[in-house]
Design brief:
The complex is a heterodimer of chains A (about 220) and B (about 260). Chain A is an alpha/beta fold and about 220 residues long. Chain A has four helices and 15 strands. Chain A has two domains: about 100 residues, Alpha-Beta Plaits; about 110 residues, Pectate Lyase C-like, CATH 2.160.20.70. Chain B has one domain: Rossmann fold (3-Layer(aba) Sandwich), CATH 3.40.50. In chain B, α1 packs across α11 and α5 runs parallel beside α6. Chain B is globular and about 55 Å long. The chains are: A alpha/beta (about 220), B alpha/beta (about 260). The interface between A and B is small, with 9 and 11 residues.
């Protein structure tokens, strides 16, 4: 794997850092990284850190095109070179990750998680198997211990969820996880992570996990959201 | 005759694959079937010892594959059970000495003259496992009632299903009904709840298996031990696949086991 590209998921989406080297080579490496997990990146948004690299508007277009090819968009370019800042401004992109667009006005809301695409999977995931999808995942079957579901949106398991589950994997803390029997080994939502306590017996009623007040909380499903 | 190729595998090591293979081979031979057992654990051969045939090895699986002998020359016939044969593994090579295609070819050569070809798989999910599973018509998964063994068995089930080998059958080995009753061991239901595949049999924990294994005399040869009885039952069910037979209900089997154990 090329180390000139660093991809990090945050609650504001992905942060992609472009390292040193000729822009062509770096973009080729970026394209390879994104192409390796196409379904995962689809529909996501990214902020690009370019360090002190000077970039023209054409360069930024080229960078944007790479993301567009996997169905992603960029909302910010964070660089210290004045030329880069100017180019980003010309294209209407944010130039600082500290003030994400999504928090400034309703005009630039991030993609609502309700608009994400979804898939339905009708099988049991066994140990060592995983599903990775940038939208919502509905699984009709069990998620056995040692299996993983990673979704950009919500995860609904019509069965026993005993493996590892990661909802809102592109940084969406509002994602939820529901299961007929919610007993995951580890649960992650957005930027939060929890290991459920060992329960003497598995839950009898369907439950839903969500982030409330900075922690992952599990409620009975029928309380509604 | 067209042999059914049955591969015994588990993922985790030490759960009893080789013991199950040796005993099923012996039990099927006792029931009048022509049986060839193949040790696919190249480099760590054991099946010959458990069958008590170690000292009679001249050629092995790798010799056959590399053309140093004919397949018939490498087969060792068991003196106690003339219908039982062993194709031993090489001791000095590793799993890469054989390919899945070569395993399929060897089994195809054995098919016309045997009723059952039993392949003893090495532990793991690498090439040795792939070699062992490639020729299989039916895969048997051996697990013990332990979370680590069940986890690995689940992984194996996933891999077998992806290979389009049909659904594997499960053998739960070394179950201790007393410990299950005290809640100290996973029960048959616990294991089946995770794996969700058909159960071929349960073998109770039985010290005699260790004794027999060390002596190179499969426990099925001796009539009175519970593990031997369980293994003979499993052999009978395997034969039932040729004549479509109703699958034994897990509960019924468990009840019968409990009776066999006098509990």
């Amino acid at each position: 794997m090329d180390e000139s590209i660093l991809i990090k998921g945050t609650r504001d989406g992905l942060i992609v850092t472009l390292g040193d080297g000729p822009l062509d080579a770096v973009l080729a490496a970026l394209e390879e990284r994104l192409a390796a997990r196409p379904a995962f990146f689809l529909g996501g948004r990214a902020a690009v850190k370019v360090l002190d690299r000077p970039l023209s508007p054409e360069d930024l277009h080229a960078i944007g095109a790479v993301f567009q090819r996997v169905g992603m968009s960029i909302w910010a370019v964070d660089g210290s070179h004045p030329a880069t800042v100017e180019s980003a401004g010309e294209l209407g992109l944010e130039t600082s990750l500290a003030a994400p667009v999504s928090r400034e006005g309703p005009a630039q809301e991030p993609m609502s998680h309700r608009e994400l695409p979804g898939i339905v999977v009708r099988r049991t995931l066994r140990a060592g198997q995983e599903i990775e999808y940038a939208g919502h995942v509905t699984l009709i079957g069990d998620v056995n211990p040692g299996a993983e579901v990673i979704a950009g949106g919500d995860v609904v398991v019509w069965g026993k969820l005993r493996g590892v589950v990661y909802a809102g994997a592109l940084g969406d803390d509002s994602a939820v996880v529901c299961a007929l029997q919610l007993a995951p080994g580890q649960i992650r939502i957005g930027s939060f992570i929890a290991t459920p306590p060992d329960r003497a017996r598995p839950p009898k009623a369907p439950e839903q996990a969500s982030v409330q007040g900075g922690t992952i909380v599990v409620d009975r499903w029928d309380r509604g959201t | 005759m067209t042999a059914t190729v049955v591969t015994v595998t588990s993922g985790k090591g030490g759960v009893g694959k080789t013991t199950v293979t040796a005993n099923l081979g012996a039990a099927l031979a006792m029931l009048g079937k022509q049986v060839v057992t193949i040790d696919a654990d190249i480099g760590l051969r054991n099946l010959d010892m458990v069958l008590g045939l170690e000292n009679r090895i001249v050629y092995d699986l790798v010799d056959v594959v590399e053309g140093r002998c004919r397949l018939r020359q490498a087969l060792i016939r068991d003196k106690r059970l003339p219908d039982l044969h062993l194709l031993p593994a090489a001791q000095t090579r590793d799993k890469s000495a054989v390919t899945p295609a070569q395993m399929i070819e060897i089994c195809d050569q054995l098919r016309p003259t045997a009723d059952f070809v039993l392949v003893d798989s090495p532990a793991g999910i690498e090439q040795g496992f792939r070699n062992a599973v490639a020729p299989a018509d039916q895969v048997l998964i051996v697990t013990t009632p332990e979370v680590s063994a069940v986890r690995d068995a689940d992984r194996i089930v996933g891999l077998i299903e992806a290979e389009d080998k049909g659904s594997p059958l499960l053998i739960i080995n070394r179950l201790n009904p007393q410990m299950v009753r005290r809640g100290q061991m996973l029960s048959m239901q616990d294991v089946l709840e995770i794996l969700a595949i058909d159960l071929l049999g349960i073998i109770p924990e039985d010290k005699q298996v260790t004794v027999s294994t060390n002596q190179g005399a499969p426990v099925v040869l001796d009539g009175k031990h519970p593990a031997g009885q369980a293994l003979r039952n499993i052999a009978g069910r395997l034969m039932g696949q040729e004549i479509p037979l109703m699958r034994l209900e897990p509960d019924g089997l468990f009840g019968r086991l409990a009776r066999a154990l006098g509990r």
